[in-house]
Amino acid sequence: FFFSSRRRHTRFRNVTGVQTCALPILCRASDGTTVAIEVKRRGEIDGVEQLMRYLEYLSADSSLGVLRGVFVAQSIKPQARTLAETRGLAWKEVDYDELRGKRTDELRLF
Known about the structure:
alpha/beta; 4 strands; four-stranded mixed β-sheet
């Protein structure tokens, strides 16, 4: 499921007291765990801390079961990677243009 509606956004903000412009993507993994995915353009420490706050608030809902967090950004700073790992979060760098299907004309080794 995906928290995208304005009503849910407002309700979540009022419950948590956290001012946000968007909520993490919530989905259920094949093993039954609930996964919160925080997507940022630049992966910095504040994004990791924001995901941790979301997970803390979501943990109050027992219907979600086991929670797991994934921090996703186009580039993630080393400090943010370290913080994510020490907090038990997974992280992943993604190329937004590639995800959108835009191909560059430049040659790349990888």
